[in-house]
Each structure stands twice: as structure tokens, then as C-alpha cells.
Amino acid sequence: MAIFLTENSKVIVQGMTGSEGMKHTTRMLASGTNVVGGVNPRKAGTTVDFPEGKQVPVFGTVAEAMAETGADVSVLFVPPAFTKAAVIEAIDAGIGLAVVITEGVAVKDTAEFYNYSLGKGTRIIGPNCPGLISPGKSNAGIIPADIAGPGKIGLVSKSGTLTYQMMFELRDFGFSTGVGIGGDPIIGTTHIDCLEAFENDPETVAIVMIGEIGGDAEERAAAYIKDNVTKPVVGYVAGFTAPEGKTMGHAGAIVSGSSGTAQAKKEALEAAGVKVGKTPSETAALMREIMQGLSA
């Protein structure tokens, strides 16, 4: 099993014909993702040739792409200024999952398209995220497909780079799905959404959760884990050495007072029974112990 993205997912790429879209569509196709179309109003009716003889048609709108291909996932490589309009177009077309890779989207725009999505049946992942991968099944975004294979660990992370490191360090166990939710102050899918989905996925047996300083998402996730998650969870919080009051690489990673510090988040998670590593490698080692115990 996997969450949100399976071998049956049919993926379109909004912005496929741009340089980033082309590069990552090539990689998604190479990893076995069923990419069925691209969207670019100016290039509608054309096809794009990819390696190994793969041809992908380009449609004028998301609605046309869905009507022709049955697509249920869109990956967006759209410049920040046009991201809100592109996400709203995907929502209006009824796409089930919109994966917003774009970095630098205005928080106001994200708030508007996220609120617009509520009750309309579209799950948003991102923005400013690497996407998600169900190894061996499908890969929607920019996560390298060759760093880990299929397995029974679920991963949810605010950080793209730490997603890759954790998948690589635990590659001998493998993953059901790895989800990079993004590090902006407002995001579509949260730690809690992923924890709930992994808890309900019969083939995910343990969960790695990677958070970072700023906001209270990790504290909320800790409370959710305490009340709702029966599977073992290990955690890591990026930013133990960050100076207070300074915005770090992710727009959401700013600490004021004791609220939002790595230490406060670590304590909240540990109080909920989550084992928290001091480094990514220590976190991987904690998960390794759990997986070895489960298979013993």
C-alpha cells in the first residue's frame, strides 16, 4: 500500500514544457510514473518527446487533460506569480491531488488557494516542497527515485533535503510513501494529515516525522500522535543551533521566545512517546532499531 499516490495514479504536469518541468518530468517518467499529459495553453495540441521513445501530449487546460487522460494528480512547476491561478484551475477541474513544487509563493496566495480547496475534494501538497514518492509505484515531484525502494516505513517531512537523507539512510528497509510537505508558513497537507493516512495504511508499520523550528505544527502533531497513532514514530526537529528571532531558509522557520524552538518541539514529541534523534543519522538509527524489533 501507499498513501495519496499509487501505481494507478495518472499524473499531469502543469508547466511541463518549462526547463524545470521538462527536467523533472524526464526523471518522473524514468522512475515509472504514469505521466499522461502536460498543461500549457500556448502549446496545446503538441506532444513532447522524452527519452526511451516516450511521448507526452500537451493540453490547453487541466480540465481538458483530465477529460482526455483520466488524470487524478497534477504536479505544478509554475512560477510563483502564476501559482495561485494554476492551483485554482486544477481545483476547479476536480483534480484529486495537486503537488505544488514552486518555491517563493506569496503566503497570501497560498492562504487563498488552500481555503478555496476546502470541501472541493482536492488535496494540496506544498507549496515549496519536493513532492511525494511511493517507491516502485509512482513519483510526483523532485525526490530522487533511486535512493530507496519500496518498504514499510512512512515518512513525512518539512525539509526536502532531510527527506532524501532519511530515505537513503533507511534504504535497506524501504518506504511505503515519503511525503515532503514543505516549509512555508501555510501548507496544504500537514504532518497530522500524513500521520492519519499512515496510521490507516495496513502496510505502513512505523513512521518517521521530520519537523523544524517555527510555528506549532510539531506540537500539534505530538498531541495527535498521543491520542490517535498506535504505530511507532521517530522524529527529528531541524534547527537546534538556529539563532533566536532569525528567519532561516524556510519562510516558516522563525522562533519567537520559547515558542517554536527545537527543544520545545522535541519535548512535546517525547511526551507523546516519540523517540527524537539529535541528528538525522541518530533518528535513522532509532528507526532501524524499531524495524529490526518488528521483524524479529
Automatic annotation (TrEMBL):
Catalytic machinery residues: H250
Domain of life: Bacteria
Name of protein: Succinate--CoA ligase [ADP-forming] subunit alpha
Pfam families for the chain: CoA_binding, Ligase_CoA
Keyword annotations: Ligase, Nucleotide-binding, Tricarboxylic acid cycle
Entry function: Succinyl-CoA synthetase functions in the citric acid cycle (TCA), coupling the hydrolysis of succinyl-CoA to the synthesis of either ATP or GTP and thus represents the only step of substrate-level phosphorylation in the TCA. The alpha subunit of the enzyme binds the substrates coenzyme A and phosphate, while succinate binding and nucleotide specificity is provided by the beta subunit.
Enzyme class: ligase
